[in-house]
Design a protein that fits this description.
488 residues, globular, two-stranded antiparallel ribbon, mainly alpha
Length: 488
């Protein structure tokens, strides 16, 4: 009888509940519309996952240390990056642009979300343009409008879009309300505005070869930014960094990553750090095995050594014991370094570079040069007496006769293990420092200028990509071809 009563109750419940089965497939607790704060968190997380650490095999070093010859790899790790023999790259940035536009659409009248969304759109178009050249922009992401095969915009037009997005972001951020879901600045809109304009400075400096372009005028853009600090606030200290604090929940990229044992210092970089008596080498690398066996201190600069970045991977692997390997703290400590996307040191060196190039007469290049160095040293908690000693090193003391080279080289040093692709973009633009390419480890004996377009574009968007390649690159879609940005 008991079973019968239960069965009747169940059947009765079935008749009295007339909902369709599909209604039970909807989670009443799940959002049905995009939430701006959740999208912001997602955008920030992906900024550090893709823009700082990039993607692919041992990606962090592909985007920083190997390409810029601050590191060498062993046992075929990141071989294509070290040998300058890469081919294609992805266009994952478009997903970030989609997410940023979704956040803008979900802003619900809060201009802060709109401004930050515009910033993320600018960041990702900047990445795309610098990786490839011309990319879809004006017709991108318009599937709802029936555009399945977007045309490729000229790189110059993409740059105009980037600058316009940053202008809009800067103009409206102050009228926004506090945002949620922000782990970079915890909703501080003043900090976000500094980030917007510091990125604008990065974009302007990347145009240094386009001085004669009447539509772009990077020198004018630079002077306008520097002459209007109230309108264009920029980073003023390390507290302004656009970075992700690292811990056990969001650890440094190499934490518990066995790949760290396959990388050591590159010889030109190691030799420079030793010649400059640079204290940052202690943070970045270990002394050699031979130096340790001889009882040398980590403060003894002769205890460090690098291997040739243009040697073959096999040769360097055979000599691995001679190299200073990465500091084991990268592997063992989740908070060994923050994940830094754009720092105060970069802003300082960019201003110094602009002054030396004659773009602004309102400041002193040496002052900003020193500011960049001290900002980088402070980032690694360098003691003040050590900072003073380093600034007095003969090879570090500013010399106006070689000021630009010094500024760019110190920026190169400070960019070690941070800022994603930007160190490569900068040395590609400036030629400082000169990369070693004569050895057998670099078959082309050239520094690549770009990445090839993703192969699936030749299937999905064949006519438009072929047209873009034809108008840009006489030699075809090759990594040695020069994009508009890098032409004088």
């Amino acid at each position: 009888m008991k079973r019968f009563i239960i069965l009747v109750l169940v059947v009765a419940a079935g008749f009295t509940s007339c909902k369709k089965m599909s209604s039970f497939q909807n989670n009443p607790n799940a959002p049905t519309e995009p939430i701006a704060s959740s999208l912001l968190t997602y955008l920030e997380r992906n900024l550090f996952q893709f823009s700082v650490v990039a993607s692919g095999d041992d990606a962090y070093f592909l985007s920083t240390g190997l390409v810029t010859q601050q590191l060498v790899g062993f046992s075929n790790h990141s071989l294509n990056g070290q040998s300058y023999n890469w081919t294609t790259n992805n266009m994952n940035e478009y997903q970030q642009i989609i997410n940023a536009q979704e956040m803008i659409n979900a802003a619900n009248g809060n201009n802060a979300y709109v401004a930050i969304g515009k910033l993320f759109i600018a960041i990702n178009y900047y990445m795309l343009a610098n990786k490839f050249g011309d990319v879809p922009c004006s017709q991108a992401l318009q599937l709802a409008s029936g555009i399945k095969k977007p045309a490729y915009d000229a790189q110059k037009e993409v740059y105009k879009t980037i600058l316009a997005s940053l202008d809009t972001a800067n103009n409206i951020i102050a009228s926004g309300m506090p945002v949620q879901g922000d782990f970079i600045y915890n909703g501080n809109l003043t900090q976000w505005q500094k980030f917007i304009n510091s990125l604008r400075l990065r974009v302007i400096m990347s145009l240094s070869r386009k001085l004669t372009d009447a539509d772009i005028k990077p020198a004018t853009l630079f002077a306008d930014l520097m002459n209007n600090p109230a309108k264009y606030p920029i980073f003023k200290s390390n507290a302004d960094h656009a970075q992700q604090t690292t811990n056990l929940s969001t650890p440094y990229v190499l934490y518990n990553n066995q790949a760290w044992v396959y990388f050591g210092l590159a010889k030109p970089f190691s030799d420079s750090l030793r010649a400059f008596r640079d204290p940052r080498i202690i943070h970045w690398a270990s002394i050699t095995a031979a130096a340790a066996a001889a009882g040398k201190s980590i403060y003894d600069f002769s205890a460090y050594n690098g291997l040739p970045p243009d040697a073959s991977n096999a040769d360097n692997t055979a000599r691995q014991a001679e190299a200073s390997m990465l500091n084991p703290g990268f592997f063992s400590q989740p908070n060994f370094e923050p994940n830094l996307f754009l720092g105060f040191y970069e802003v300082s060196f960019a201003i110094a570079e602009g002054i030396v190039r004659g773009w602004w007469s309102g400041g002193n290049a040496e002052t900003y040069y020193k500011q960049g160095i001290t900002a980088s040293l402070a980032y690694y908690n360098t003691p003040l007496d050590t900072v003073s000693r380093y600034m007095a090193e003969p090879k570090v003391v500013y010399d106006p006769a070689r000021g630009l080279q010094q500024i760019l080289f110190q920026r190169y040093i400070a960019s070690n293990y941070n800022s994603g692709y930007e160190p490569y973009f900068t040395l590609r633009r400036t030629g400082v420092p000169e990369m070693a390419v004569a050895g057998p480890g670099i078959p082309s004996h050239k520094v690549p200028q770009r990445w090839q377009y993703p192969t699936n574009e030749y299937t999905l968007n064949k006519d438009n990509i072929n047209a873009a390649v034809a108008r840009q690159f006489p030699g075809g879609d090759q990594i040695s071809e020069t994009m508009w940005l890098l032409k004088e």
